[in-house]
């Protein structure tokens, strides 16, 4: 598995897979302000494991902890969190 460090947040893409602290994540969106942006990643669970919570990184932590997994892609389908919440009612 080849890993490329992410130094430029403009290269983040929702269809790519990123490794953060040993887990696989998909880039979801940017939040925060223009002077202090935050980058939100959703956990990609492996079969048989529960979904973990999203992770939020600032620009510095993105460069230190985030790496692109070359050759892997994530599905860009809409998250199913809303449907799971609606099933409770």
Structure description:
Strands 1-6-2-3-4-5 form a six-stranded antiparallel sheet. The protein has 89 residues and is an alpha+beta fold. The longest helix has 7 residues, at 59-65. The protein has helices at residues 59-65, 81-87, and strands at residues 3-5, 16-20, 23-32, 37-43, 55-58, 66-73.
Strand line-up of the largest beta sheet: 1-6-2-3-4-5
Number of helices: 2
Largest β sheet strand count, sense and barrel closure: 6 strands, antiparallel
What spatial form do the alpha-carbon principal axes imply? globular
Concise overview:
With 89 residues, this protein is of the alpha+beta class. It is 16% helix and 42% strand. The chain has helices at residues 59-65, 81-87, and strands at 3-5, 16-20, 23-32, 37-43, 55-58, 66-73.
What is this structure's SSE topology?
Blueprint: E1 3-5, E2 16-20, E3 23-32, E4 37-43, E5 55-58, H1 59-65, E6 66-73, H2 81-87
Antiparallel strand pairs: 1-6, 2-3, 2-6, 3-4, 4-5
């Amino acid at each position: 598995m080849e890993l490329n460090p992410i130094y430029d947040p403009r290269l983040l893409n929702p269809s790519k897979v990123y490794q953060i602290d040993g887990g696989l994540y998909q880039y979801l969106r940017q939040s925060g302000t223009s002077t202090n942006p935050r980058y939100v990643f959703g956990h990609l669970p492996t079969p048989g494991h529960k979904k973990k919570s999203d992770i939020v990184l600032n620009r510095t932590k993105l460069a230190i902890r985030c790496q692109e997994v070359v050759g892997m892609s994530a599905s860009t389908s809409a998250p199913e969190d809303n449907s799971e919440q609606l099933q409770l009612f």
